[in-house]
TrEMBL record:
It is found in: Cell membrane. InterPro entries: AAA+_ATPase, ABC_transporter-like_ATP-bd, ABC_transporter_ATP-binding, P-loop_NTPase. One of its GO terms (cellular component) is plasma membrane. Keywords: Antibiotic resistance, ATP-binding, Nucleotide-binding, Transport. This is ABC transporter ATP-binding protein. It comes from the Bacteria. Belongs to the ABC transporter superfamily. Residues 11-247 form the ABC transporter domain. One of its GO terms (biological process) is response to antibiotic. It comes from Glycomyces terrestris. GO terms for molecular function: ATP binding; ATP hydrolysis activity. It is a peripheral membrane protein.
């Protein structure tokens, strides 16, 4: 039995740097002096635009990529020096088709993985059945994976990640492509993992998902930690920067909208079509009212994108946006 640090954080990353060589140019820094601590039983969101460094971090934690400098540990075990003892503590769930055998049934896939984890035949069968039940796939256990929907494959990925009974789960975009019902069920599953004291590190572009699931969220950009926050901050950001789209808006009305309190700017996106950006919670409501009272019916609201929220976060910190 390995002496894992039960009292140690589930994940502890200190001053982590990872450079990649680029042809001819200077090395590309994918992670830059990155710090992160995740407690057992914590669901931690890694939020960031494309290329922020999320996958690089997950790869270093899963011992498949070496850091350039700095350290990363799982339950007190260093991912480089103790890689062999770190691996059984981890469950890694990357979405998509990778890692599943399409022609094999769900149960066969899991039994195969159970065998790789050294479980005997009978124990492997028991574990596969238990996990299929847990992720709601028991009724489809004996059907080939190629007949599964994307959401079902994602759930099977999670079951696979749980075969080794890991203490820490790394989930990369786990609900991409899932319908809302499956995504909701998936969130319940993550809740139950937390209740069992497992730590979950979840990468996502989806701010609403991060808000619903996570105990804390780290905003990453250009390999650096911008902020580590309570997820309620996400809800505030989403409502503070809500947007209103409208069509058939005369220029004079657009000017009136621009003068309303909390309206950051009004952009013309086509003839008579506008996108109104707000920077104060509740500011979308008077915009909607003004539009509707003026007889505009083609109106909708939308949350800001992750990229827009990032621009605001970076602006607040006075940081430069990296290329
Ligand atoms: N093998 C590699 N060689 C060179 N550069 C790399 C390599 N892997 C990653 N990078 C670079 O490191 C940076 C971080 O990439 P990473 O894949 O970690 O981002 P990410 O946050 O996971 O993005 P996404 O949301 O698109 O998956 C990017 O600039 C990327 O181009």
């Amino acid at each position: 039995m390995s002496h894992i640090g039960i009292d140690a954080p589930a994940v502890e990353v200190r001053a982590l740097v990872r450079d990649f060589r680029t042809r001819g140019g200077p090395p590309r820094r994918a992670l830059d002096a990155f710090d992160l601590t995740v407690a057992p039983g914590e669901v931690h969101g890694l939020l960031g635009p494309n290329g922020a460094g999320k996958t690089t971090l997950c790869k270093i934690l899963s011992t498949i990529l070496l850091p350039t400098s700095g350290s990363a540990a799982v339950h007190g075990l260093d991912v480089v020096a103790d890689a062999k003892r770190v691996r059984p503590l981890l469950g890694i769930v990357f979405g998509g088709e990778r890692g599943l055998y399409a022609r094999m049934t769900a149960a066969q896939n899991l039994r195969f993985w159970a065998a790789l984890y050294g479980l005997g035949r009978r124990e492997g069968r028991r574990r596969a059945a238990e996990l299929l039940d847990r992720v709601g796939l028991a009724p489809r256990a004996d059907e080939p994976v190629e007949t599964f929907s994307r959401g079902m494959k994602q759930r099977l990925h999670l079951a696979r990640g749980l075969v080794g009974d890991p203490r820490v789960l790394l989930l990369d975009e786990p609900t991409v492509g899932m319908d809302p019902v499956s995504a909701h069920e998936f969130r319940d599953l993550v809740e139950s993992l937390r209740a069992e004291g497992r730590a979950v590190l979840l990468t996502t572009h989806d701010m609403a998902e991060a808000e619903a699931l996570c105990d804390r969220v780290s905003f990453i950009d250009g390999g650096r930690l911008l902020r580590c926050e309570d997820p309620r901050v996400l809800g505030e950001l989403l409502s503070r920067h809500e947007r209103v789209r409208a069509a058939g808006v005369p220029a004079a009305l657009a000017e009136r909208i621009a003068a309303l309190p909390g309206v950051e700017r009004v952009r013309e996106t086509g003839p008579g079509a506008v996108l109104v950006e707000t920077d104060r919670g509740g500011a979308a409501l008077p915009v909607l009212r003004t539009l509707v009272e003026a007889g505009v019916t083609d109106v909708s609201t939308a949350p800001p994108t992750l990229e827009e929220v990032y621009l605001h976060l970076i602006g607040e910190r006075g940081m430069a946006v990296r290329p």
